[in-house]
Every structure is written in structure tokens, then in C-alpha cells.
Amino acid sequence: MCWIECKDLQKEYRCGSQVQMALNHVNFKLEQGEYVAIVGRSGSGKSTLMNMLGLIDTPTGGSILWKGEDILRFPEYKKTRIRNQMIGYVFQAFYLEPSYTVYQNIEMPLLIAGYSRSERRARILSALQEVGLSGKKRQRADSLSGGEKQRVSIARALVNQPELILADEPCGNLDSENTEIIMKLFDRLHGEGKTIVLITHSQEDAERAKRKITMKDGCVLHETLL
Ligand SMILES: Nc1ncnc2c1ncn2[C@@H]1O[C@H](COP(=O)(O)OP(=O)(O)O)[C@@H](O)[C@H]1O
Ligand SMILES: [Mg+2]
Questions:
Q1: What is the 122 CA–ligand 2 centroid distance (Å)?
Q2: pLDDT tens digit sequence for 133-157
Q3: Distance from the CA of 50 to the center of ligand 2, in angstroms?
Q4: Which of 34, 66, 97, 100 has the lowest CB atom count within 10 Å?
Q5: Distance CA 36, CA 214 (A)
Q6: Are 205 and 171 in contact (CB under 8 A)?
Q7: Considering only CA atoms, which residue is closest to atom 3 of ligand 1?
Q8: Nearest-CA neighbor of 162 among 192, 131, 119, 182?
């Protein structure tokens, strides 16, 4: 049995009489511990696929199986738990709470999960160490550089020890030096056994993954093993 499997996934957007097929019968398999890059032109459906995998949005057709179970049929409380505890999200725009400190930003998913104060502290300090920002925990998020903000968002994605990390163009707003720092971090997380799906515009960054999926017009055009 496959770990995660998207079967015949479809997503239609309707604007009046116009129908946009953002995902056109996509099949996609992911095994635990894999590092997969998704590439393709803007508008090819990469973010749509990731949002379906991450239970951020719902497909208009098809199914998503996690260890054989159709998660789209799960009740809402179970989906919320999966989003909070099994998936770590990293976005191009970071989505940090600007007036919160680094520590408070990383603490948010732990508060939702209901960890005690001391457990939260231990997890936050360990995540900060993982991303190399131990010295900045009391700094406000809006005082950080772009690269630091992305490292905080990765720490936040990691604190609940998710099974799956979804990153949608995490280096899209970063210069080459910070891109390298983030890409090295993903390399290390992959080495530690994390499952990573990375959307990127950069062929060079995609080559660091072990498998590359190219999307076009809502379809998987081809897959390459790297
Ligand atoms: N909320 C939406 N409403 C209408 N169309 C959308 C919406 N989100 C995405 N689309 C369309 O779906 C297609 C795929 O978009 P997206 O998944 O964001 O592509 P990518 O991430 O590869 O740039 C595009 O044609 C886009 O315009
Ligand atoms: Mg996108």
C-alpha cells in the first residue's frame, strides 16, 4: 500500500460560464521519507495540488488516501488535527504574525495541539536550534530579514513533528544566499527522514530532491527520478 496517494484528482474553478480545470485528473503517489519537487510554469496547478494534499482546499473530484484511508471523508475535527499535527506548511509569504516574537510564532501550533508550557518550551528551543535561530527567540517577527522569517516559519512547521512537510516556493522571496540556507535545511530534514514536497520555480533547487514532477495545464506532464 502506498503512503499517500492522490487518485484522479480534479479541481474546477467556475467563473460565470467559464470553467478552469486547475487539476485535470491528477494521479500522484508519495512514500514516507521521500523528497519530491514539483515544477511547472505559473498557473500549471502546483499550488492547487499542494493545497489539496494539505487539506487547505477540497478537490471537486477524486480521492486522497493516507495509508489507504480517504482523508477527504474524515470529519472536520479529524482534518483539523491532521493539519495541525501531521502536516507542516511553508509558504513563500511566510505568514508570520508580525507583532509576535519568534518564540510566540513558533508556539502557535503547540498551543493548538494543547502541549504544556514546559513541553512547548522544549520543542520551541529544539526547533530554533534546528533552524539556527536560538539567539533570536525574543525578537519580533517583523524585525527579521526575509531569510530569518522563512527559518522561523520552518521552525513553526516542525514543532509538532509532522509526518509531511509541504513547501510552496519557500525561496521565492529570498536572495541566493538565503535560498542556499533554506535548501540546506531541507536537505538535512530529508536526511533525518522527513517527507518533503517542495514546489519550486528553480530547476537547480528541484535537482536537490530525489524525484521531480513536472506539471502543465493541471496535469502531471512527466516524472523524473534524480
Ligand atoms: N481561487 C481560484 N479561482 C479561480 N481560479 C483559480 C483559483 N486558484 C487558482 N486558479 C487557477 O487555477 C490554475 C492553477 O493555479 P495554481 O495552482 O495557483 O498554479 P501554480 O501554483 O502552478 O502557479 C490557474 O489557471 C489559476 O488561475
Ligand atoms: Mg503557486
A1: 34
A2: 999 999 999 999 999 999 999 999 9
A3: 9
A4: 97
A5: 11
A6: yes
A7: 13
A8: 192
